[in-house]
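Try this one yourself first.
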């Protein structure tokens, strides 16, 4: 019941359109009941009385009714569907807004294709239910109840015999509904898996081409595709049972109406006009019965999609701590105090980490892979929540700041630079959507990418392709740096920002990063130690925790792990 309340809440912003749609549906139902009653009168009264004037009058009345019905049907078809689309748009908006507020941990565990399936495919089925469901149900109730009353005025016994089939139909539909529900849910899940596999394969198409693994990718995709085929097979089998069973009951209804009506007419229980009216009425209300049957399927498909959307919306979003304040006038003093963290209750990635960064200082994190360097960086903007200890900025726990203000003060440049499909202007402006072109170009100049932009025919309006595919690694990195220059944060995180670049490009990018770091508290994760040798402090982080810390010269003098890493890299460069 709670689920239906949530679903009904989406009608509230569109209640006027919904009321108009239902009113039109009601009038259409009433219009449908005129024809059999007029037919009865024509056969029983006007033809025997040879009253051509009334025959013509009622023919014109029926014509007017059909014209009115056509106009109302147009309204129902167009505006009814638009109401469903608007509800779909509202649900997609809510789902997307909620996705933006979910933590990294949700996306770590959930496939992108599965999320897209819920937001796109499931909401389409919901839109169909939102429009057709109430309308079909309302039309069916009005038509069946109206037919029952009118037919009872002619012959109660025959009417009861005919309407006795409706409980049988309802029982059969309800009995089959459970199987339809299960198969529908399984099919939706498989659609999500297929979408996820497809999205993953398309995203990695360059890798598969480089390794000539197209056959392997096809085999993986076919495995999911076959699972989808099996799920669809089960669903269509359930649908076949449903429709063939209901079709048989409807055919039996017509058969009983014909022979029971003939029996009552033979015995004088009804006259010829009433017999004709019965046959027409039965033909008419098989349509609302079919609508009821379709409603069961739509209800199943739509509510299955709504359940999946609600599962998405029920995922716990990021939230500010009660009483959180704005982070403003930042000095940039950062401290990690006994910080511990693990992913989803697994083994600790970080345990009892203690370190401090003074305002305007650059601290570099180095060490073997798997030591938690990038994870530590993700904890500062609260992409993940720590399990123990606390992290402070300017002496105050970061959990006491609002997430928005905290992240506004932190700029991040990562190894895997992500550019959105759009123009260079769009991507740099992510740092400040209100920035002017002059401000954007100033940020580009600071990142040493202005000359490249000016050399392009379309300049800032150059389309970069999906994930910036038309640009080189260095160009993408410079645009990412320009984005942070435009944001102008007080705290900077450089997460292996140059490790994927060649030596020449690395030197150029490093110069831009050095410029970016001036006057900011900077946390650097580096694989190449040469890029951090001039950092104010270097921390060697391993799976055991902080092994060493100090300046480049101090760590070399200790002849510890840092010195070994340095000597190994220097030897490699010879």
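Now uncover the answer:
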């Amino acid at each position: 019941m709670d689920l239906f309340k949530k679903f009904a809440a989406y009608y509230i912003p569109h209640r006027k359109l919904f009321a108009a749609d239902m009113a039109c549906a009601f009038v259409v139902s009433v219009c449908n009941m005129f024809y059999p009653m007029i037919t009865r009168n024509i056969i029983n009264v006007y033809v025997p009385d040879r009253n051509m004037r009334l025959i013509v009058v009622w023919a014109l009345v029926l014509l007017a009714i059909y014209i009115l019905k056509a106009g109302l049907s147009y309204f129902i078809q167009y505006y009814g569907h638009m109401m469903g689309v608007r509800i779909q748009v509202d649900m997609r908006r809510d789902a997307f807004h909620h996705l933006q507020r979910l933590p990294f941990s949700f996306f770590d565990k959930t496939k992108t294709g599965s999320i897209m399936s819920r937001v796109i495919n499931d909401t389409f089925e919901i839109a169909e239910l939102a429009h057709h469901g109430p309308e079909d149900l309302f039309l069916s109730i009005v038509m069946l109840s109206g037919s029952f009353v009118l037919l009872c005025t002619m012959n109660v016994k025959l009417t009861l015999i005919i309407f006795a089939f409706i409980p049988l139909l309802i029982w059969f539909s309800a009995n089959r509904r459970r199987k339809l529900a299960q198969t529908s849910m399984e099919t939706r899940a498989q659609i999500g898996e297929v979408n996820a596999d497809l999205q993953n394969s398309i995203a990695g198409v360059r890798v598969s081409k480089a390794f000539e693994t197209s056959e392997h990718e096809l085999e993986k995709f076919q495995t999911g595709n076959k699972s989808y085929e099996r799920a669809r097979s089960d669903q269509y089998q359930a649908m076949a049972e449903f429709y063939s069973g209901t079709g048989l009951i409807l055919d039996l209804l017509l058969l009983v109406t014909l022979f029971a009506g003939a029996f009552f007419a033979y015995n004088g229980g009804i006259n010829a006009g009433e017999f004709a009216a019965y046959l027409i009425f039965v033909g008419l209300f098989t349509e609302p019965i079919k609508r009821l049957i379709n409603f069961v399927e739509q209800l199943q498909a739509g509510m299955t999609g709504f359940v999946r959307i609600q599962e998405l919306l029920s995922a716990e979003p990021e939230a500010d701590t009660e009483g959180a304040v704005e982070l403003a006038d930042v000095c940039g003093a950062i401290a990690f105090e006994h910080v511990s963290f693990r992913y989803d209750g697994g083994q600790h990635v970080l345990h009892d980490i203690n370190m401090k960064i003074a305002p305007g200082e650059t601290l570099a994190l180095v060490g073997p892979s798997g030591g938690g360097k990038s994870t530590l960086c993700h904890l500062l903007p609260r992409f993940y929540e720590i399990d123990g200890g606390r992290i402070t900025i300017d002496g105050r726990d970061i959990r006491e700041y609002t997430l928005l203000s905290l992240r506004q003060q932190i700029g991040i440049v990562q190894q895997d630079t992500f550019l959105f499909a759009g123009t260079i202007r769009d991507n740099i402006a992510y740092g400040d959507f209100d920035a002017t072109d002059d401000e954007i170009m100033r940020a580009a100049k600071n990142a040493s990418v202005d000359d490249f932009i000016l050399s392009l025919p379309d300049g800032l309006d150059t389309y970069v392709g999906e994930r910036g595919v038309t640009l080189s690694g260095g160009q993408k990195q410079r645009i990412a740096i320009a984005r942070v220059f435009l944001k102008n944060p007080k705290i900077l995180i450089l997460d292996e920002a140059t490790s994927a670049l060649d030596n020449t490009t690395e030197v150029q990018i490093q110069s831009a990063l050095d410029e970016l770091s001036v006057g900011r508290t900077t946390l650097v994760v580096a694989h190449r130690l040469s890029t951090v040798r001039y950092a104010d402090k270097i921390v060697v982080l391993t799976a055991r925790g902080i092994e060493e810390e100090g300046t480049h010269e101090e760590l070399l003098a200790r002849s510890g792990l840092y010195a070994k890493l340095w000597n190994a890299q220097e030897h490699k460069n010879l």
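Discussion: Strands lie at 334-342, 348-357, 362-366, 388-393, 396-397, 410-414, 491-495, 521-525, 537-542, 545-550. The first helix runs from residue 2 to 9.
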